[in-house]
Structures are given as C-alpha cells and as structure tokens.
Amino acid sequence: MTMRMLKTAAFAACALLVAAVAAPRPAISAQAPTFAAYIYDTTGKQIGQAIFVGIDTGGVQVRVDVSGLPPGKHGMHIHEVGSCNPLRNTAGVSTPFGAAGGHFDPQGSGHHLGPNGTGHAGDFANLVVDNAGNARTTFFTDRLSVSSGPTDIVGRSLMIHAAEDNYTDNPPLGGSGARIACGEIGPLRAM
User: Fold this and answer.
1) CA-CA distance, 117 to 123, in Å (whole number)?
2) Domains of the chain from N-terminus onward
C-alpha cells in the first residue's frame, strides 16, 4: 500500500466515524415538555413511575421504572382516559382501573397491532420484569405526543397488564389480560 492509499483509507475511516457520531437522534431541549405517570398496583401502593418527554422533532421519549410486579412479560399500553379508578359493571363486578377505558387509538384503526404496527398508537412493547419484580425501560415513539393535538397523551393513563401481549386482535386486544398497574399521565410532582 502506498502512503497516499493509507492516508485516503484513514480519512475515509475518520469520515465514517464522524458521520456515525453525528447521526440524527431525537433532540431533547432543556425546556422539553415533561410529564409523569405515578404507577400504582391494585392495592393502591405506588410501585414506580413513567416519565414522558416531548422531543423537539416530534414524538415522545418514555422511561418506565417499576418494582413489585410478577416476573415475565406484561402488556403495556396508553389507555383513553386519565383515571385509574375501578369501574363496576351493571352486575356489580368491579374491574381494577376500569375507568381508564380502552387502548388509545387516535387514528381510529380499531386494531391492536403492536408498537410497530398500524393499529392503536397507544400500544407499547411488552414490559419485561426480572425475577426480582423490577423493570426499567426507555424507548422512543413517534406515534404519540405531549402537546395539544389528536395524539396527545397528557390526561390519559399508562396501563400494565397481567400477561404478555401478542399484538394481534385474537384474542381481543392481544390477550394481555387483567389490569395490574396504572398511572394517570399529568404534571411532574414538585420535589
């Protein structure tokens, strides 16, 4: 290899490194709108929180940190209503967190197709809980927002279900089962 070829190769490698480091990432400004859901189990005990940060270029960064859940995968969704109260049906049977309504579906798709599908915008990836009952995850979604508009999740709720979500309509709503934890999305609490 000639010296010129070595210099060209070194220059190309440096250019690739700079391009990789400078690749676009969701931009979070110091003034980014930030909201929280303080998550409670069915006994009323706070078991964690979720933080929702608006991204300058659109979308939301979500960070969920919970403990005290059964190990395994759990369906996790944004639900229509910002209420984690129970709901009784006409027979008097109570559903924990039933007042949160159904999955958030601002586009009116009527389908449950998972976080990367064209169904409910409120469908998130399954929450994976370790053997000690803890889960922590951070992810980005461009299907939701924390600013006024049809995809705004402020005033809605974050729901964690008892079982894994299969991201299909069979069984209905992915088969993730009972509601075991819920948090109403609103302002951060003062520290």
Assistant:
1) 9
2) 27-187 (2.60.40.200)
